[in-house]
Design a protein that fits this description.
Chain lengths: 102, 227
């Protein structure tokens, strides 16, 4: 029932790069926990946690979600989502953080 | 099943597409646009979290300390593994290996079940310790601080709850996909559903990657903040 038994399997995608990404993700998770035990102070602890989380996200998006080899429209959708998040944070926080000044 | 590319037999190519490639790109784009919307959805929750944490840093650190970070870390590892097994299923679909699709999906489903099982344990513990916001929440201290701690747990339950809901939906879809995959539904030419679902599952993993440190690890550094 497997389709196309005659195809040349030598060009089939290998799981090895994905396994490497898996390893990196698990290692970064351990790093997340480790970094959280160190008192870097405010706001550095948050920034470090965010940086590590963004790295993990980057790996998932680039490799697991195949964004690297995908069409420009897909990349545009992803970018719009990211811009949307930025707008949420920038606009809401610029309101909230400047509310109680003076 | 799949004969040598004869146009009249391409029942899995919808009539409004010129090629499998166009069909695939359209399908993936549809999923990505949906995910962009999902990103916005969770972003709203994260912004809410940022604002309330900024208002009540001590209460949030205190609340975070009452979450078991080891269970959170375990679940993070479980979800990352489930993303890997999902990739296995997608590669199976890309190479026309039916059993690989099925194995990948079953493993992903199992990891998802482990994740949800851990969440049930966690939620149960919160209920027992009277930390669920609402009439059963117990706080024996400054009422204002109590309200702030309740806010942390409200964010915890809403954010992890919505995340868990997304997982349950995904697992329901996988339950349907497994017999379909076994029956040879997806081929090397058209396996868009598997790829698209893979994107959804990775997104669920992505949300948790951000939830874990900002909900579970706030109190770990012992920076002196206490409730």
């Amino acid at each position: 029932m497997d389709s196309d038994r005659q195809h040349d399997a030598s060009h089939d995608p290998s799981l090895t790069p994905y396994a490497l990404v898996l390893g990196a993700l698990l290692a970064l998770t351990a790093l997340t926990v480790l970094a959280a035990t160190v008192h870097f102070g405010h706001p550095w602890s948050d920034l470090i946690a965010l940086l590590i989380a963004l790295s993990k996200a980057g790996l998932v998006i680039t490799f697991f979600m195949h964004v690297r080899g995908s069409s420009p429209m897909v990349k545009l959708s992803l970018a719009s989502g990211a811009v949307g998040v930025l707008v949420f944070f920038l606009l809401i926080l610029s309101d909230y953080l400047t509310r109680f000044l003076g | 099943m799949s004969e040598a590319a004869s146009a009249h037999h391409r029942t899995d190519l919808a009539h409004h597409f010129e090629s499998y490639e166009q069909q695939k790109q359209s399908s993936l784009l549809g999923m990505w646009v949906f995910l962009a919307q999902e990103i916005m959805f969770f972003a709203g929750l994260f912004v809410c979290y940022v604002v309330y944490r900024h208002m009540h840093p001590a209460a949030f650190a205190f609340g975070s300390q009452h979450l078991d970070w080891r269970l959170g870390a375990l679940n993070t590892g479980v979800l990352i593994l489930s993303s890997f097994t999902m990739v296995v299923a997608v590669v199976g679909a890309q190479t026309g290996r039916r059993k690989m699709i099925v194995c990948g999906l079953i493993l992903t489903l199992l990891f998802g079940a482990v994740f949800l099982g851990v969440k049930v344990v966690e939620y149960g513990a919160k209920w027992q310790h009277h930390l669920v916001p609402g009439p059963h929440f117990e706080w024996h201290g400054d009422p204002a601080a109590g309200r702030a701690v309740q806010m942390f747990f409200a964010m915890y339950f809403v954010m992890t709850g919505m995340h868990a809901l997304h997982m349950v939906v995904g697992m329901g879809i996988m339950l349907v996909m497994i017999p379909l995959a076994w029956g040879g539904r997806w081929t090397r030419e058209n396996h868009n559903f598997v790829e698209g679902f893979g994107l959804y599952w990775h997104f669920v993993d992505l949300v948790w990657i951000f939830l874990f440190p900002f909900l579970y690890l706030l109190g770990l550094a012992g920076s002196g903040v206490h409730g």
